[in-house]
Design goal:
transmembrane helix, mainly alpha, membrane, Small multi-drug export protein, transmembrane
């Protein structure tokens, strides 16, 4: 008996066949993203005291509703005492679940009342993003990663996955871009927040000064971006 006869471990081709099966693909693609999200909350429930579990669960839920986003949820969680690696892992896995749901179930999700409205707002944001950046279609992969890295508000994973669909990219490329952008931005925010918290504990004045400088810089960048997009829209013929 050969080794192939005694092993039943599914290979890549087996998983592809499973996802192309018309009777199994639909339920798997719809349920798996929710299962990943549920697994995150179950893991947090098992490793965190109950009160801390409730707080971080609330932060993760707020992550999906603007104006909340990585740039606010991650620093808040770090300041509340959660380890940077835990916050990073939770946010990235949530982005993985969201991007999988969008790339697999986009047309179906548009028909779901609450989710459909969120996706429609993401489509609007994606179109505005591409209209303001015509070079994006030539550098779609880099542009998609940047959108997830700099979401400014709301989950960049959802808007990034929607933008990938609007650009006509295949689902695996979209998913890879979202994962790369999410991991890079989450790590940068978590490690930066952790370092700023250490600085504040050692020198509160310096810590507050650095935070104030960052806030002013971000607000100035956002205002400049909004002004530039407004000028582009005014120049675009209707």
């Amino acid at each position: 008996m050969s080794a192939d006869d005694t092993t039943n471990i599914p290979g890549p081709e087996d998983w592809r066949d499973l996802l192309t099966n018309p009777y199994l693909a639909g339920p798997i693609k719809f349920i798996l993203p929710f299962a990943i999200a549920l697994a995150i909350f179950v893991a947090l429930y098992l490793i965190e005291p109950y009160q801390q579990f409730l707080v971080i669960s609330g932060l993760l839920a707020a992550y999906f509703f603007p104006p909340a986003g990585k740039e606010s949820i991650i620093p808040i969680a770090i300041m509340m005492g959660y380890p940077w690696w835990l916050v990073t892992l939770a946010i990235v896995l949530m982005d993985v679940a969201v991007s999988l749901f969008v790339v697999w179930n986009f047309d179906l999700a548009l028909k779901i009342p609450l989710i459909g409205r969120l996706l429609e707002s993401g489509m609007t944001a994606g179109r505005n993003y591409t209209d303001a950046r015509p070079w994006l279609r030539r550098f779609s992969t880099i542009g998609l990663i940047l959108l997830v890295f700099f979401p400014l508000q709301g989950t960049g994973a959802m808007n990034g996955a929607i933008l990938g669909r609007l650009l006509g990219l295949d689902m695996y490329r979209v998913f890879s871009c979202v994962c790369i952008g999410s991991l890079a931005s989450s790590l940068a925010l978590a490690l930066g927040s952790d370092a700023l918290l250490d600085i504040y504990h050692q020198n509160p004045t310096l810590g507050i000064g650095i935070v104030a400088a960052i806030v002013v810089t971000v607000l100035a960048a956002v205002a400049s971006l909004k002004l530039r997009e407004k000028r582009l829209r005014e120049r675009t013929p209707r």
